[in-house]
Amino acid sequence: VGSMKLRLRRIDGAGGTVYFMDDFGFTWSGSGLVHHACGQWHSMSAVDCGYGWGNTCQLDMLHAQGIHVLIHGFDFELGSDDVALATMYRGRFDVPVAYDGDSSSTTWRKINKRTGLGFDFSVYGDAAQVRGCLVFTDKSTSALGIKVRLRRTDKAGGAIYFEDDFGSTWSNSGLIHHECGQWHDLKDISCGYSWGNTCQLDMSHGQGVPVKIYGYDLEFRSVASDASWAYVGRTQVAAAHLQDQPTNTWLQVSKGGVGLQLADYPDATEVRACVAFTDKSTGSDGMKIRLRRMDHSGGVVFFEDQFSESYSNNGLIHNACGAWRPLKLISCGYGWSNTCQVDMMHTQGVDTDLFGYSLEFRATLPRDICRFAPVISQSVAFTAELYKVVSPAGLWPDWQYKVADAPVMCSPGSVLIDVNLTSQHLEYKCGVVAGLGACIEWFSPQADVQDWQYFQVLGKLSVACGTDALLSGFHFEFSEGGQWGRFRYSCCKAAGAPTALVPAGPRRQAAGSIDGMYCPIGKDESGRMRYRKDALPPPEVCSVVVSGLQPTDAWMGGRFEYDAHQARFVYTSHLSLTQSPEDAMVWHLNYNDRSAYYSLALHGTRDTGKLNICRAVAATFTGWDFSLNFRTTTAGVIRSEHVEMPRGQHVVSQESLVMDLMAFHQSGDEVVDLASGTNFGIHAVSLFDGVPVWNLENDVLSKVGGDGEWVVGQDYTSCTWVFPRDTTSGYLTFFHTTEDAALLIEADTKHLGMYSDRDGGFRDAGFVVDVLQWVFLCVVGHGDTDASAVGTSTFYAALADQNRPRQVGSADRVVCGTSVGAFGWPDQGPGKIAMTKFWNRRLSLQEIEAVFIETHPQVKLLSFHPANGLWCIWHNCTSTDPSVDPVGIAAPAFEVVSVSDFTGQFEGKGVPKMHADNRKALAARLKTIRAPRRPAQPRKPALEGFTPEEPKYEAECVDYSNLWRTIQESYTDAAGQLVSRTATLGAEPLDSPPERHPCEVAAASSGTRGKIGGGDGQATPEKMSYEEIDSCSTRGITRGLKSAQLERDGAVWGYLEDVFSHSLDLLCDVPPNIETAPMGIGAEMQPEEFCTDGKNFAESLLKVTNMQVGIGLAGAQYDIAQEDNLDCDPLQVGLARLFCDIHCVRDAVVRGDRSILRNLKSATDITNRNMKALTEWAASAAKAETGWLAAKMDVMEERTSLQLKIISETLAAAGSAPAIFLAKARTASETMLNELSGFAHAASFSAVARATARDALESFTRDAEVLDAGSGANTTSAAVALGQLASLHAVLHAAGGASKAVTVGAQLRQEAARMQQAARTQLQTLGVYREHSNVTGSTVQSWRAAQQQAERRSTLLAMDRLWWQLRNRLDEYLDAAEEEVGAFQSAFAAMADYEHCSVGLSVVTSAYGSSLAARDHAHRLLKATWREGSNLVGELAAVIADGDAFSVFIRDEGCSSTLAQQTLRQARFAVGGMKLLMHRFEVGGLGRPEVQPLAEAVRRIQESYREARKGCA
Question: What pLDDT, in 10s, does the model give residues 122-157?
Fold first, then answer.
């Protein structure tokens, strides 16, 4: 026991005054856990640490246990009471710097690590200014000091952004200064992540003395206060990685376990990680870093960030921050069971240096703290007696007990409206607020208490309710053993002033199961309203009896809730219960919402005074959530009864949801849990009773793979909608873990329960399940421990026709601590499953009821699904539509419209009132109706083009030789043409290569072309070519040969020398010795020795003078060796050049792949933008066109209506004006007769329409009234004839009443089919060698025999091949043209359906887009067919003309050659096919194609044919 303390004080020479001391506790971990903690806040006014020896300070450390201590870092944090200042400060970057050495007053020296610095300033997006802060010391002796500047690197231009003067210490490196420079505009600074825009830090000292720099930071601030969030602090985590250790797997980089005292930042709501790093990356992706629990602490990953690669060979240092995340997600404690670690990996597996890892904290400030909440009534003032008496030493004895004994709590239904702190106590008032909702209990984060003498820990605790919530009370809790304190508090939802949503308009009969009126029932987690179509029976509250009622002192308390049956929000605070004076059996429940008064009768018993609240009454109050409180005075005893009334709709939180399976969510056959990603294998969804289900009567949803693993907690809830399997053997198993079954039905008894394989087997809940209809089942479990099999399982059930689930039983076993296994079990299939969900927490009854409503297979609920961004009614969903208000959205099965008060009765504006003779007014009205002008088409968008980025290669490779400078390539372009081009390769210099470049090594290899080897004596060039390397080898071989020749000549001379020597030996042996002794005394002469010496002398002289032996031979060998040494070594140079080329090939492959990826991304981005622009343009064009067509149809309908009214008026007035009537009748008849032709033509496109029109015409010609001027026809006859004509007109109009779009489509289809058939008939002759009808079979056989001749056979085969190719190309285009016509016909049909309101605009737009796509495809194929066809016809002309085919045929068969005629006919058909294509160019608006090659081919065929027939008559 004993902790580490740190204090700040003056040094001994400055007085030694202690300013403050903080106790940081101890780790109790053998230096394995690293603690990050902050001390108390201290007033700055009492601290004075200056820059002189008389006022400087020092930090001291003391550990009560006297053990080894490792301090990784110590920071001072500065705080302000000014919120504006707090919200202006944005954060800081810790820049990796290092300098310890001499300085210069004239030369700037770089102080940052590595080559360059890059900053992602966007992480402080709203920052406007930046400044530098320096920690340093020096050996200065005057006022001139140190300057630091931030600038671009030399390669990036060297621009200087700012320069700060930090002065000097004048302390012989004894004082450490902490200084910050001036604020500078951030918009003028750009330090990026590439060599073209990176920066560096430079230092210069005015005295040129030694300088040591400990750190340099960049701080950021905004120029205006931002009330949305405030920066609250930064923790430097002890994490770094500076080893040459590449890794593409996770590697721990933190030093030991990481513990974070998050209570040091009690106001913080969000956290993010900031790093400074560099790497040796050469591709995409980059470094990932994560914060997680250690393995023995569970290994939970709290968050993970990915940072882009530096691509700089460890030269550029990146300073960046990750995303902000909720602080509540993180828990890194000070024990081995909850400590954390920081891991790092690089996706490319390259060396990565991590210089620092920090956590930044900020607090989100609520913008709407003040909210309107109408207070209906308020209480008297209450006092929480704290007895706060602080001693002069700043102590408040037993403060924890006093605060805990003084809870501040309001009664249910009220909230705090006034709080005042007196000298010793806390006074507060409570009030009843209108619109108060549910109250939820919360806990503040626990704060560690190191010493219970100090009450200042209360400053670290905060009590705050979220948006739209009010504080109802709070209570202090603490644990002296655990050394922590916290607040437990209650927040109540407040909706503001009560609002009534009263629907207006008729409620019509529903057209389908989905159709109907949907009323809001509450909000979901995203804030969007949820809507329900009532399909459930009213809630049932029966058999509730309240005895001993008296007509006095009865009241009801309640809440503000939406009543779905009344379709309005109701407020239930003003309710009273009174007894009717005239009938003791009737009690009146009165409701007053200050705008209306309602009274409902509750029937009781006269003699007993009992009140029965039955279903009929409860149905009236569906959606309310309140209790009836009755106080009676029978026998002087006051008692109360509680009656539970129907609850309102709740929203189920997704918190702790670990399994979410709904059949209608599944796409494809793979079953994947939406909550945890658990894969349950392949199971198709089918429809049962109109509901999407998984049929598990004989099947199981079993977990597969290792993904999505989760464990059942100590508390859990499992709910399922099932149509049970009807069986009497075994079990119906629902959710089954790896060991137990949480929910099942015993088949023979139909009893609900669970099965514990670990302890006890089947546990019966005592409830019988009806297996003949849809059943909703839930189990809520609570274990004794988080891995116990013993606990309590509470079961809930409801049938589909019931209003809500209820508790039906319990069991004494649970499935806690087991893992997710399967849904169902072999031979224990549950039945047909529509939904199953699992939470690792206990759901309340209200939440279970909400699940019941939300997932009911027969209740239509319109709600938003945040997981996929869809509005859905059961399994019918829209496309992705994140609209907040569903009005206006559409899906294939429904559209959402707002309820209006339209009564169905209206009069069109401008229509004159009808009276006795209104024909003139109608005619005048008819003249005023103008057809709508066709709207201008929207401007066609300009599409982006794409130019691929050419890759750049290493300059050492490109510049080595001509072999790498250019590249020649051939490829087929979009038009199908073979293109050859020579491209110059781009070069990019390599900065700071890790080692000497292979090409540089190869380039440095050289030598002298030796003359002995056949060279010219000149030096070899740099960057030797392979030819030069081969010459090196040749010269080496030549020198080897010459050396061998010398060896041979030396040997020959040696042999000759031996012969000569031996010959002389023989001669020297002949002469005898001569004695000279004239006086008897003399000498003996030996001629043999004289001869031998002469021979030896001659041999030596020969070796000296002869070049073939002796010195001459040695000199020649030396010359060869010397030249060989000076010349290039082919093995050395060849290997160097080979490694250079291999390296360059690798570089080209890597850079080429990256260039391909970048080009693909750029092309994809451009294509997506172009597609989006074209789609928006096409939709706008279609919308304008369809709108105009709809308006035009309205005008036609209005004109027709007026014309019919005029006719009706005319008929009515015929009795008084026969002449006028006859004139009008004639005009009307002429108009109808003119229209009959068009109707009859339109009716011809359908067999049924043709039959109807034919019968009507036959009936008219047979029965029509014949008007003869000579027979005295009167107005009656004219009226009859006009009626018959009108009848014929109506029938033909109905028969041919297809829309113009349908008619045009049918005409287009018929004409196109006729044209296509004609073209195909013509094309049938292409490639088919047919003879005239009068040619006999023998002629055919003779022709076949004749074609065996080589010359004719070759020509015929060549022409046959070309004709068939041409025919195939034309057939392909005709198929595409048919598809184009079909697409346009579908578009016309869709437009007709849209005119009749049978399809939506999206269908028309889709059909229109398909027709445009088919047209574009046909146009592209038309151009390609024309190009290939022209080439084929040209090739055909070449075969005919160059092969002189006509002359060969006429020579063999005569002037009437069948082959010649047939060949000419085939050529004409081929040209005819090309004319068809030319016509399609004109029809398609594509302009005239290039016809010169085709015309030239036709000319050559014609000239060849005329030339061949010159000798024929």
Answer: 888 778 899 999 999 999 888 889 999 999 999 989
Comparing CA positions, the residue from 287, 217, 284 lying closest to residue 246 is 287
Task: For residues 1509 and 1513, give the distance between their C-alpha atoms in angstroms, rounded to a whole number.
Answer: 8
The answer to whether 737 touches 711, Cβ cutoff 8 Å, is no
Round to whole Å and give the CA distance between 415 and 373. Answer: 11
Burial string for 1138-1176 (b: 16+ CB within 10 Å, else e) reads eebbebbeebbeebeeebeeebeeeeeeeeeebeeeeee
CA distance 96 to 836: 53
Please spell the DSSP secondary structure of 1169-1214, one letter per residue.
Answer: HHHHHHHHHHHHHHHHHHHHHHHHHHHHHHHHHHHHHHHHHHHHTT
Max distance between CA atoms of the chain, in angstroms, equals 205
Q: At what angle do helices 1130-1212 and 919-928 cross, to 10 degrees?
A: 160
The torsion region of residue 36 among left (phi > 0), alpha (psi -120 to 50) and beta comes to beta
CA 1471 to chain centre: 54
Q: Looking at this protein, which amino acid is placed at residue 630?
A: F
Using DSSP, state whether 691 is helix, strand or coil: strand
Q: Please report, as a single letter, which amino acid is at residue 856.
A: H
Select from 671, 718, 717 the least CA-distant residue to 692.
Answer: 671
According to DSSP, residue 254 is labeled: B
Nearest-angstrom CA–CA distance, 1124 and 345: 53
- Nearest to 408, CA basis, from 425, 395, 391, 424: 425
Provide the token pair at 1081.
């005394």
Query: To which H or E segment does residue 536 belong?
Result: none
- CA distance to 1442, 1459, 1461, per residue, from 1454 (Å): 20, 10, 11
Specify the residue for token string 């033509």. 1241
Nearest to 713 by CA among 655, 651, 777: 655
Tokens of 984: 């110059």
The pTM score is: 0.34
Q: Which long-range contacts (C-beta less than 8 Å, at least 24 apart) are formed by 1242-1248? A: 1242/1296, 1242/1297, 1242/1298, 1242/1303, 1243/1292, 1243/1295, 1243/1296, 1244/1296, 1245/1298, 1245/1302, 1245/1303, 1245/1306, 1245/1307, 1245/1310, 1246/1295, 1246/1298, 1248/1295
Considering only 673-687, 1045-1059, 1264-1278, which range has the smallest mean pLDDT?
Answer: 1264-1278
Q: Is the pLDDT of residue 638 over 50?
A: no
Q: For 535-574, how does the pLDDT look when each residue is reduced to its tens digit (9 = 90+)?
A: 444 443 333 333 333 333 333 333 334 344 443 334 343 3
DSSP class of residue 186? G
User: If DSSP codes are grouped into helix, strand and coil, which group holds residue 851?
Assistant: helix
Q: Are strands 33-36 and 257-260 parallel, antiparallel or unpaired?
A: parallel
Residue type, 1386: S
- For 386, phi then psi, to 5°, come to -95, -25
Distances (CA, A) of 104 to 495, 696, 1029, 1070, 1369: 69, 83, 51, 97, 81
Q: What is the mean pLDDT of residues 226-243?
A: 79
Two tokens, residue 90: 């944005």
Q: Which residue, 561, 568, 575, 565, is CA-closest to 628?
A: 575
- DSSP state, residue 224: S
